[in-house]
Amino acid sequence: MKKTLVPVACLLFVLLSTYTKAQQPAERWPEKKIWDWYNSQPWFCGFNYIPAYAINYTAMWDKTTFDPVAIDKELALAQQSGMNVLRAVLQFAVYEDDPAYFLNTLDTFMAICSRHKIKFMPALFDDCVFGIEHDPKIGKQPEPLKGWYAWSWSPSPGHSMVVDESTHPRIEKYVKAVMERFKNDDRIMTWDLYNEPTNGGLGSATFPLLKKVIVWARQVNPIQPLTVGVFDRNKRLNDIALPASDIISFHNYDDKEALQKHIQELKQYNRPLVCTEWLNRPRKSIVATHLPVFKQENVGCMLWGLVNGKTQTELSWGHRPGDPEPTVWQHDLYRGDFTPYDPQEIETIKKTIAESKK
């Protein structure tokens, strides 16, 4: 017996150590690894995508309304301009209703993106609310309320689940199911783990879930880099988001000078930068001034959005029925009939992307 105790104990120790290491999340990519990855890519220039038919991201993915034909037509339009990446928010509620359907639908969507030479940045969660609903509901969505910006926007997973930690094991299954399915898929550019955490009135109540999502994503250890976007000056939030990010992603809807200052501030982290939201014409965040900055600074960029539709994002944030009609669109490149809002913008996008390839 004594002769076998030591080998058995050693074997148990090795097995326990291996199991423990397997449970530990992978680490943030070292600077050299992320820069090698970034420098091997084309200059990322694209858009935040929600189909014109969808009033929210639930409608984009839900089995009652998902429309690959409409998506294919819209992404063909994007391809004509040369844009090569898009970002879209996933919807936990649609996944939980039918996991197999949701994963297959994501695969269908990515096949359409790939057909049009567009990489995909999925955002797993979103706290934003612009209307009166704070939790998503699957099935057919409400029609637009004319004059109300993003009237029926649906967060993911919804504010009730964010604050109820007893639901978090269900959310963990979703994160790992989606990421495990596509963790080696080169159609995905980057995983955006959480769009604008704390927004919509949640504040610091989002922090516990956000921290868990980061750990779960690292445990999956995908071949694609991870990021949590910086969208405001919330130090507590940014102290979570920045150290968790392989690439530094950020939102900026301000004028050229403010954008340039923001980029210089973020360069201190010595990581590739991607602006995952911009374009707000009334605030002077415009194609003519901003796209040259992004290209010159080698900062990836994704404007908001492609084809104007049910979200009514030509209106300004906070626009309500009865307010004066805007004289200038806030977001979106194309009208519903696929004609450009401003043809010169499209020409600038085409020219700038073409120059980036030289």
Based on the model shown, name its key terms.
358 residues; alpha/beta; TIM Barrel; six-stranded parallel beta sheet; two-stranded parallel sheet; 13 helices
Description:
This protein has 358 residues and is α/β, with parallel strands linked by helices. It has one domain (30-356): Glycosidases (TIM Barrel, Alpha-Beta Barrel), CATH 3.20.20.80. Helix content is 42%, strand content 9%. The protein has helices at residues 2-23, 31-39, 57-61, 68-81, 92-97, 99-115, 159-163, 168-182, 207-220, 235-244, 256-266, 287-296, 343-356, and strands spanning 45-48, 85-89, 119-123, 191-192, 226-227, 248-251, 273-278, 300-304. The strands form two sheets. A six-stranded parallel sheet has the order 3-2-1-8-7-6, covered by helices on one side. A two-stranded parallel ribbon has the order 4-5. Strand 7 (273-278), helix 12 and strand 8 form a beta-alpha-beta unit. Helix 8 packs parallel to helix 9 and helix 12 (287-296) packs parallel to helix 13 (343-356). The radius of gyration is 21 Å and the shape is globular.
